[in-house]
């Protein structure tokens, strides 16, 4: 294909979440609040884990701190622009900005999927092999798991962007969402993208589905193991795992729905995108940490030290 046919489109138009002026003002206030609370909440968790040696040396909290760090980036790759666009008549994004959104979405999203599997493995070892927990989940192992999550996320993302950025875009430039997402952008290319859709299923769909199945298997094994030992512990573990499963479903469910069926778009896709890019980063700190007794104590200590210092 001739060089001149590449990337004729220099910017894309985002359709956003709504065209109603009244709803856009409401959404501006609502998502501004959600974004602020999410960033502050996750940042507080990261600072608390780093500042408290007992938590930082714990494999579980070390992984939780990394999850909160990823959540801050996940909610920030598109939400600030979404909030700004509620006050803009035209929701434009440059070609480079569009590709950057695709890259960071799949980089952070892929890393978080693998990290969630690592956290489930941590809980499996803690419950099913408690005597060997600190040996198996050593600091070296934890750093290795976090590194693997970042590497997998980067490889996954770069493989998606590599073929997307070089597609010929010479016609329609309206993306039917509030951010640039891979299935929507490749539809705008001036060529048959059926094969690319298959590749996307093999990449994003397979990663989402495989991580989700691994998580479900891990939680099932944990619940079965706990139930065999104690009925009282089983009810507590069921309560904890149920909360985790809800968040995991809210994160993986939309991803699986969107990327396993990329050829068909539904009106609910925008709502699903909001769940895994905005609401899940808000729920993660609530489910995984703010309900945790040790985390609450550490936060009180941090607040006390800050007040004393002042």
Q: Could you walk me through the main structural features you see in this protein, from its secondary elements to its overall organization?
A:
The protein contains 12 helices and 3 strands, in the order E-H-H-H-H-E-H-H-H-E-H-H-H-H-H. It has 310 residues and is mostly helical. 75% of the residues lie in helices and 3% in strands. It is globular. The chain has one domain: Rhodopsin 7-helix transmembrane proteins (Rhopdopsin 7-helix transmembrane proteins), CATH 1.20.1070.10. Mean pLDDT is 84; it is low at 1-7. The longest helix is centred in the last third of the chain and has 36 residues, at 194-229. Helix 9 packs antiparallel against helix 10 (231-260). The protein has helices at residues 21-51, 53-56, 59-74, 79-85, 95-128, 133-136, 139-164, 182-186, 194-229, 231-260, 269-290, 293-309, and strands at residues 11-14, 92-94, 174-175. It has a 3-stranded mixed β-sheet with strand order 2-1-3.
